[in-house]
Each structure stands twice: as structure tokens, then as C-alpha cells.
Amino acid sequence: MKHRHSLWLLIVVSLLISQKTGYCEESSAVVKHQGLVYAEVSGAGNEARSLQLDLFLPTTSEPPPLVVWIHGGGWRNGSRRNPKLMEVTENGYALASLSYRFSKEAIFPAQVHDCKAAIRWLRANANRYGYNAEWIAVAGSSAGGHLALLLGTSGDVTELEGEVGGDLKQSSSVQAVIDYFGPSDFVLRGKTQPERAYTNQSGSYALLGGKDGKVPEQMERLASPATYVSTDDPPLLIFHGTADKTVLLDQSDRMVELYDAVGLDVELITLEGAGHGGKRFFEGDSFQKAIHFLNAHRPD
Fold this sequence. Notes:
Lipase/esterase; GDXG_lipolytic_enzyme; 33% helix; alpha/beta; 9 strands; Rossmann fold; disordered N terminus
């Protein structure tokens, strides 16, 4: 009985430690740190909750550069589990996949505040976990693509920085962005896709505080990556399907237009007949183009 009690106590202590520091699993190719807490925030009903990320590290001789994945789900659902770009770890990159608050917990700009907090935390803890955070690429799909774009264009925007997390002296800037069919300009979307922009068909309606079929234009501009494009923004790769009815192709065309206007590095890859998502975006030739983009812009 005494031994059984000791074993039970050991299990309880182990669970408590794992909840606080995350779970580490090591395989022959990748070391996984899951459930790492990067910030504590107020969730629904002002209840405190932890924001977590998962970290995947390839076994390399030098600290690998970092790619951060932001999941989609209309800013109202989705999961950091099973990130779409997991295979970057087979190409010499570390990968972090993060959670953020949904619109039912807090409206914009809480989501980008969370993402920036994750970037700062990842920089502060680079030596601890063994990756290179001087250069960080960020990628995301749909709502996650929007947040990835926003991280890229709002590096110098104070009101989008926020004070989430405990690493406020760290930079939240990113050095490369891959956007998979994310919205970039909510003002434009209100003109070309009002049936989504101003109804519950789209998660952006709740995200931006929509009410009675209207969204404040100030919020549309505040949340639009297009608002902040400037000459010091990072290189950008965009994937978008020509048959996407959820986020129209004009959202990606808009980013290309703005990047071209100030001479920035941008490429839009359209997938003929593709809708809003699907394996085609993350496998085969598309994945190789993403790796080529990362390799072209990573530090030597």
C-alpha cells in the first residue's frame, strides 16, 4: 500500500509539472515540447486561462531557424494541433504552433496581441530550447493567414503590440511571411463580399464587433494588414485558390498591389480550381515552393 501511495503521488506531481512547463517527447528525428505556456490572459467571463504553443525541433548540429504556424478557423475555432507545415522540420527548420483567443473570448486586437506575445516568448526562450530566433518566419491559413500577414506588416504599430505575456522587451517582428488564403483588407471585403463581411457567415463579423449588419470602419482598417504595408516589411509568399468563395482572390491581389507599390518582395501562387483550403496547398509542388521561399530568405 505504501508503494502504491508513493507511485500515485509521483504521477500527480508529474502531471502538475507537465501542465506548467509543457510535455516533452523525443523521437529520432524531432524533439516535441507540447503545451508550453507563453502567456496568461483573461478568457471568457474574465476567467484566467493559459495561452499555449507546441514546439518541434529537428535534430541538427546548429540551432535551426524558426517557422511559426498560426491555425485558421474563422477566429472562432480551430486548433494548434497537427500544424499544416509540420514537414518543415524535415528541411532544417524548427516549428512552433500556437493557440490564441477566439472572438467569443475577446474581439480584435486580442488575437494579434496574443500572436505577438508568442513571438516575444519564442525569442526570449530560444537558448533554452535550442533554436535560432534572430530570424523568424510566420505562416498561417485563412484566419491564421490574416494574423500572419498582420505580424508582417504591423511590426512598428504600437496599438497592435499589446502587453500580453512577460517578455515585452523582446521584438515581435518577423522576417518572412507565408499566407495561405487569408483576408488582408476588410474594407475591400465589405465592398466585394458584403454577404460575408456583415453577417455571421464570416467569423470577421464577430471578430470586429459587428452588430445589426454593420462593422465600424475604424475596426475594419485597424484589423487589415493592408493598412500597414510599408517599405520595411518582410518578404511575402501567398497561396490562394482561384475558386475560393470564402475569401476572394482579390484579398491576395490587394497585398501584391501594395507590396509592388513600395518595391517589396512578394509572390502570389494561385491554385487553379482550388477552394478555401485542402491538401493541395501543403503538399507536393506547393510545399516545395514554400521551402524554396524559406531557404531563399533564411540567414546563411
